[in-house]
Here is the input.
Amino acid sequence: MSYPQQGQGQPYQQQQQQQGYQGGYSPAPAQQQQQQAVARGAGYNMKRRNPVGAWLGLPMITLGVYGLVWMFKVHSELHNYDRRIDDAATGALLSMIFGWVTLGIWPLVVWCKLGGRIAQAQRAAGLPATCSGGMGFLLGILGFGVLYYQLQLNKVVDRYGETPAGQQVSLVA
Here is the structure.
């Protein structure tokens, strides 16, 4: 291979690009050099709810019925967001309605498991898992459980910006 003399031909790099690769080590593609968060799957974005409205406003207006609706919707949306999260919407609703049969133990178990499902959704969104079932349990006893869980859910929703509820979004983990 000869080098062009001064003032003649094209620079060496342009000549190599036109001739193609002729041997040796090739440079790494630009896509491999950049390490970004790669989408591992897809799901449907959840609805962003006002935490105070979900915790205090709507349950008072509907005489507690919204609490059942909220529990069902949250479990259903978590499953639609990440299919690896089991669909426990019906079981959660039944636990709230018939939990008195087990002296309230079944609803408490479902309530604590909700914290783990929210933490799993946070990891799938590429966020640190800050939701805790234990904290949800303690705050639930004090009456602030829905507020805590809705604030944690809104972190996942806010990760996707202005993406409307029900639109497909990519999962990071």
